[in-house]
Amino acid sequence: MAQEEGKVIVRHEAAEEFVVALLEASGVSRKNAEIVARGLVQADLRGVESHGINRIPSYLSRIRNGVLDPKAEPTLTQVTPVVAQVDGHNGFGFPAAHLAMDTAISMARTFGIGMVSVKHSNHFGMSAWIVRQAVDAGMMSLVFTNSSPALPVWGGKSQLIGVSPIACGAPGGPSSVPFILDMAPSVAARGKIYKALRRGEKIPLDWALDADGKPTDDPEKALKGVMLPMGGPKGSALAIMMDVFSGVLSGSAFAGGVTGPYDMSKPGDVGHFIVAIKPDLFMSLDEFRQRMDILYQRVVGSDKMEGVDKIYFPGEIEQLTEATRLSQGIPFVQGEIDALNAEADMLGVPKLRPAAA
Ligand SMILES: NC(=O)c1ccc[n+]([C@@H]2O[C@H](COP(=O)([O-])OP(=O)(O)OC[C@H]3O[C@@H](n4cnc5c(N)ncnc54)[C@H](O)[C@@H]3O)[C@@H](O)[C@H]2O)c1
Asked: Which InterPro entries is this protein grouped with (predicted)?
């Protein structure tokens, strides 16, 4: 079994194949299983392990508890030539978001912009995979979602609003990486606390408060308390913005009504808001790409503050991690592999195959 610093290395192809097998054995169509697997494995490749294949046990548990429909197919309603709505019918969030971005891209190709609201969906993992879908099609994008209560609003002390990521992107120039911003409005994403819990690690004291309102480095206590918004009222306002555009506008749950991926009591009813924009609306594509190059060079070429060796463009660190992991494989801890293989045993599919040593 291949090991690296105590980790088990898995090739991305094997991880995808494994996730597809688990999902198909749970009643998900091959097409939708591949979309979910690609989104999750892309998170592991980009180093966003909090939103990678380790999410599978909780997703499968939702299917077993009858609160997520594995057979649901998202449906599309065209509202105006540039506006559409997707109903996820309580299936996986990944195919619903994929259909929404696909539709937004094709509207943007014809009309310059496409906007799709998604209702009755579920958790779609890392937003960056949807931004990448747009970047790969040469489009700029906005990708918003709401999520289950985790943050107090500014001045409040109990969970009301989701740690809902705000994401957007733009294709890069001939010698720059694409711009991919994907950030939770909390000091850290809640998935990072679940990851620390799985790995038996402590968390920084400024991430969350425990149930008594005190700072804690214990992930278990943090999950019983509240996450802290980044930048105080500004992070809280961004989280509310995600709920306005993804929840209120779509007809999905909002104002604390979304059910989280680890809550097996009822459907998620998550809403998303997805926009694609053609980058060559106001100038030629060449000029846009040259201007992205100038911006990239100015950003990464900035004077560095003390202690900083290199300045990165948003999304660049994840892209570098992806390049390494595409060639060297993805590292997991044994406990994560065991939890995934327990699902394989339950469903009678082959275990996750580690890379050859
Ligand atoms: N679906 C959901 O409900 C949900 C909820 C919460 C979080 N998430 C996901 O969790 C993930 C993690 O979110 P996060 O806020 O912890 O991300 P993060 O703090 O790791 O990164 C946020 C952004 O900052 C950029 N960045 C980070 N370090 C940088 C540096 N040194 N220089 C330049 N840019 C840098 C990243 O490229 C990224 O765009 C995201 O992928 C998000 O989509 C999903």
From this structure: Mal/L-sulf/L-lact_DH-like_ah, Mal/L-sulf/L-lact_DH-like_NADP, Mal/L-sulfo/L-lacto_DH-like_sf, Malate/L-lactate_DH-like
